[in-house]
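Q: Give me the 3D complex with cytidine-5'-triphosphate.
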Amino acid sequence: MQIFKVGGAVRDRLLGKPVTDIDWVVVGATTEEMLAQGYRPVGADFPVFLHPKSGEEYALARTERKSGRGYGGFTFHASPEVTLEEDLIRRDLTINAMAEDDQQNLTDPYHGQRDLEDRILRHVSPAFAEDPLRVLRVARFAARYAGLGFTVAPETLELMRQLSDSGELEALTAERSWKEISRALMEDQPQVFIQVLRDCGALKVLMPEVDALFGVPQPEAHHPEIDTGLHTLSVLEQSALYKQPLTVRWACLLHDLGKGLTPEEQWPRHIAHEHTGLKLIKAVCERFKAPKDCQELALLVGQYHTHCHRALELKASTLLELLQSFDVYRRPQRFEEFIVACEMDARGRKGLEQRSYPQADYLRGAAKAAREVAVQPLLEKGFKGPELGEALKRERLKALKAYKDAASA
Ligand code: CTP
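A: Here is the predicted complex, encoded as structure tokens.
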């Protein structure tokens, strides 16, 4: 048998990037031989094994054919006769379809190295279409390598467009899609992920609510970029520049969905978009089974981002309501994520990226003032149950009034 390193490990070594996990392909072996050498099978009927010591994945060379819709619909053929070239041709991108032996001799029948040098994401063969998840994968790689100058080959984008138009994307499970989306959002240029999905028509299938933002104008005074879709991309871009966590990036992507519902005759104003957007944010989160923390923050940012931008003008009682809605006393971290998501929203505007955002520290100070109200003296005064809650609220309101007066003095 012959063993080759394949896929991302080869690609990233050639790019001079750190290699995290290594996939191996085994040519000329049978399942029995693998088991006899101590490899552990991954699934009952799939020709993938884990190395007894390193735990890395070793797959028998295989060919694959699609036998139905969606991900379950695959038949594969693994046997000692399947060649390395046959295994490589079923893979997604040329840059992912290279193999090397233990002497670092490259097998590159589909010119992945040339495409790496030319900075092109190109599909290997028509077999690309057998797994619609690859539409998301290519967009994710585009987001990851945009900084190196990579773009999607026009013929690959065309194939992605055909896949998007064919209804195949709807067969993807929420779990597989979310895994790609969440990884893509954590890349260096997540806005490129959304842009590529839009360019091939996948965005209007996967997230029509986000797609609908393109072409929707906003008032130029606050939004020199005007277009709500472009604004959303910029907010996402800022969230990556500032190395924000997934929760914040997800909230950035979804914060303005309500603007896609504004009747045209009201453009460029978007009255109550914070409220109208909530059901759309919920729908997108549910579609991909986004984790609870992502869902929660996206809804809160959707509902309250304008409050944050207007923080300095809010009455003490409105500030208190805002802090209560966030349960800032028990969930300070979530409030902090809200503040930074709103800051990204403020920076994601053409020419205003460097503008200061005093609202952030102002709200942090307000949260601190409200949190510092001590419960003990109220307990000592004999307050209990709902009355204690009311008394606490009164004290917090007092503290916020004092905070506001001090800040404006
Ligand atoms: N692959 C594929 N189609 C898929 C998933 C994977 O063709 N839908 C192939 C590609 O050759 C890929 C390899 O399997 O390089 C390993 O897949 P995976 O570990 O998911 O991706 P990597 O390329 O290693 O990329 P990453 O750095 O994102 O993990």
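A quick observation: Residues 216 and 228 are 6 Å apart (CA to CA).
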